[in-house]
Amino acid sequence: MVMDKTWQLQDAKNRLSELVNKAMRNGPQMITVRGKPAVVVVSVQEYERLAHPKASLVEFFRNSPLVGVELDVERVRDHPRETGL
């Protein structure tokens, strides 16, 4: 992620208002803990977009680039597989 969108945890705590404003204006902001990505702060609008996609699962499959592709889904019926039970 771009460095101006990455915050160390201490900086995020000290500058929370700025962090929130940047998330609302400039998109997701990453917070790191001990130099490793930990969480991302996003605006409510971005969260809603990600959490509630507009298309249903059926619409997603109908719009797939694989619509109309013939798939071989025949099952091999020779010997059952071992389950290890």
UniProtKB/TrEMBL annotation:
PANTHER family: ANTITOXIN (PTHR33713:SF9), ANTITOXIN YAFN-RELATED (PTHR33713). This is Antitoxin. InterPro entries: Antitoxin_Phd/YefM (IPR006442), phD/YefM_antitoxin (IPR051405), YefM-like_sf (IPR036165). Belongs to the phD/YefM antitoxin family. Antitoxin component of a type II toxin-antitoxin (TA) system. It comes from Kyrpidia spormannii. It holds the Pfam family PhdYeFM_antitox. It comes from the Bacteria.
